[in-house]
Structures are given as structure tokens and as C-alpha cells.
Amino acid sequence: MLYSKVTPEQKRLKLRELLASGTVQQFPGAFNPLSARLIEERGFAGVYISGAVLANNLGLPDIGLTTLTEVATRAGQIARMTDLPSLVDADTGFGEPMNVARSIQELENAGLAGCHIEDQFNPKRCGHLDGKNVVDVETATKRIRAAADARRDPNFLIMARTDIRAVEGLQEAKDRVRALVDAGADAIFPEAMRELHEFRAIRDAVDVPILANMTEFGESDLFTVEQLRAVGVNMVIYPVTLLRSAMGAAERVLDELKNDGTQQGQVDNMLTRARLYELVDYEAYNQFDSSVFNFPIPTLHASTASKESA
């Protein structure tokens, strides 16, 4: 009932354990708190919170328009709904190194297990679009160093994302990830890798966990967990998969409502009322209410009669 009983500190320890387990951990992207609960129920290792999804839910493109407050608030709402560790996309850290430092502490306060910070120019753009620009290595490492220095919980995961592969090539990506690890990154997110051997090259370049982004309609093929394990990947995210699926279903229902005047043909595809109540733990709230309100509530008439007889 209400929120997770697992503390943020415990979730951060769990994330560290998962990344050190030697297996590939799958983190589907939650687009709201209830979807995070569904991810947990289905047996996944953790929850990913995409910056693109947070922006899109506000009706905005993924170009750095969301604020630290918006991201920390929504990410915190998602993270507190699940016992799983949640990793959030912190874009470029929302500013210069001092802003990055504050961002880390706000995300810690919100209950996240970790975040990733990228090396694009601010404002950024979606990692699988052309025309990206990356900052120089000094600026990129200052962001990561500020993040690592600012955290108060040493288990809060600082992941460095680099977009340099699509801009300057694989060799530059290998050089960049080494510098980011030297600056304090606990893990590496090499964005927009095109081939499996490129993940292997990043794996060979650093000795920290690496993440693979299996987003649809992007630069990477949708490699399987087995394929990614074979090249040394530790974590795989599916950032927009659930949002795309939900919005696709919503489009189909709206089309049917418009064309047929009823949603009847789509009812079998919907989450039932009973299933929704199960996900939100309706029965636990009901039992809690019963245990609190276990006495008769006097009516106005009864109260008045009591006064008159007194």
C-alpha cells in the first residue's frame, strides 16, 4: 500500500549488486508510476526513466526543455512506487558543473538509485537523431567530476553517457569513455552504437559496467539479451517502448470511438477494472480504511439527541 518500503539506500546497493552480477540486467522504461509497478511485477531487475519520455509526457520534444524540478519530481514519483532501483536520464546535468552538482543531490533526495549525464551541448537532442554536437573532453569530464563529488551516498550511481560515436567515430568514443571513467564515472552509456562489435570495443576500453540502449527506430539494431551478454554489456534499457505501446493503443481506441461510435471492439485489449484495482492494491487500502474506521460515526440527529438527554 502507498509506496515502496525499500529505502533509496537499499535500492542503490541493489543496483550495484546487479551490475556486478555478471549477467545482463533489463531495465524497461516507465512512463508513469503505475507502469513502474507493472515492470516490477513482471520480474525485471530495475526501472529506467527516460528524459525523452518525461519531456514527451509534457507534450515537449526531447531537446533539453525540461527542468531539474520537473525531472526530479516525476522521477521521484515513479521511483517511490517500486521496490526496484530506478535509473534516471539527467540529460546534460541541467547546466554548468555547479548545476550538475545540485542536480545529483536533488535526484538523491527524490529517491533515485542513479542517473546518467551526457556529453552533448546544452541544450541537447535525442541521441538517435543526426546533427548532434558534443562538448570537448574537458567540459565532459568536469560534469562527471562535479557529479561524483556532489553525491552524499557513495552508492548513488554516476553513469556517464557519451554521444561522440555518431559525431567523431568509434576510436574517439573509446578515448572519451576512458576519460569519463578517470573523472569518476561508475558506469558508461555509449549512445547510438550501430554494431555489436562496437559494444565490445567499449567493453574492452573500460573496466566499469556498460549500458546498451535498445530503443526502437534508432541507430542500433534491437539486439537480444544473449547477443549483448556475449559482448560484455551489463545493462540494457528499453526507454520509450512502453510509452510507444500505450500511445499506439490509445490511437487505435480513439479511432474506433470516432469511426464506430463505441469502444466495444477494443474492450478485450484493455486492462480490466479488476486488474487495474489489483495493480493499485485497492484491497489493501480498503482493509486499511476498515481497520481505522471501525466505529460508528454518529449522525447529526443522534448527536443532537445525546445533547438533549444530557
In brief, what are we looking at here?
By secondary structure, the protein is of the alpha/beta class. The chain has helices at residues 8-19, 33-41, 51-57, 68-79, 97-109, 137-150, 164-168, 170-182, 196-205, 225-230, 241-260, 273-279, 282-292, 300-309, and strands at 25-28, 47-49, 86-89, 114-118, 157-162, 187-190, 211-213, 235-238.
What does this 3D model show about the protein?
It contains 14 helices and 8 strands. The chain has helices at 8-19, 33-41, 51-57, 68-79, 97-109, 137-150, 164-168, 170-182, 196-205, 225-230, 241-260, 273-279, 282-292, 300-309, and strands spanning 25-28, 47-49, 86-89, 114-118, 157-162, 187-190, 211-213, 235-238. It starts with 7 loop residues before the first helix and ends with a helix.
Outline the fold blueprint.
Elements: H1 8-19, E1 25-28, H2 33-41, E2 47-49, H3 51-57, H4 68-79, E3 86-89, H5 97-109, E4 114-118, H6 137-150, E5 157-162, H7 164-168, H8 170-182, E6 187-190, H9 196-205, E7 211-213, H10 225-230, E8 235-238, H11 241-260, H12 273-279, H13 282-292, H14 300-309
Parallel strand pairs: 1-8, 2-3, 3-4, 4-5, 5-6, 7-8
Helix pairs in contact: 4-5, 5-6, 6-8, 8-9
Briefly note the CATH topology name. Answer: TIM Barrel
Query: Main sheet: which strands, in order across?
Result: 2-3-4-5-6
Shape: globular
* Mean pLDDT over all positions: 93
Order of H and E elements: HEHEHHEHEHEHHEHEHEHHHH
- Assign the CATH architecture: Alpha-Beta Barrel
Query: What is the count of DSSP helices, taking H or I runs of 4+ residues?
Result: 14
CATH homologous group name? Phosphoenolpyruvate-binding domains
Q: CATH class, please? A: Alpha Beta
Structural class: alpha/beta
